[in-house]
Amino acid sequence: MYYSVHLDYNVLFGGGSTSQYLIGLALIAGVAVVINTVIHSLKSVRAKDAGSAAVPSIMM
Predict the structure, then answer these.
(1) How many CB atoms are closer than 10 A to CB 41?
(2) In 3-state terms, what secondary structure has residue 51?
(3) Which UniProt keyword terms apply here (predicted)?
(4) CB count, 10 Å around CB of 28?
(5) Are the C-beta atoms of 18 and 7 separated by less than 8 Å?
(6) Measured between alpha carbons, how far is 18 from 1 in angstroms, rounded to an integer?
(7) What is the pLDDT of residue 49?
(8) CA-to-CA distance for 58 and 24, rounded, in angstroms?
(9) Roughly what angle, to the nearest 10 degrees, separates helices 2-13 and 18-50?
(10) DSSP classification of residue 59
């Protein structure tokens, strides 16, 4: 939120470090996407390992 707020103020009122805030915002977004991808990939691996141990669904 820090980078997005500062970027907004720099765009609205002018500032010298707009590109730095934009790069920081893009880096944080990229890291968040990578972390989210890792979490979801580990989640699917764990679900495959559990196999039939999970509670059966009504949809089966």
Answers:
(1) 10
(2) helix
(3) Membrane, Transmembrane, Transmembrane helix
(4) 14
(5) yes
(6) 15
(7) 63
(8) 46
(9) 150
(10) T
Q: Which residues contact 4 (CB under 8 A, 6 or more apart)?
A: 25
Helices (H), the chain: 2-13, 18-50
45 is written with which tokens?
A: 């691996």
Digit-coded pLDDT (tens) for 13-52: 877 777 887 888 899 999 999 999 999 888 876 666 655 5
2-27: b (≥16 Cβ within 10 Å) or e:
ebeebbeebeeeeeeeeeebbebbee
What pTM, to 2 d.p., does this model score?
0.58
3: tokens are 């980078």
d(CA 23, CA 55): 45
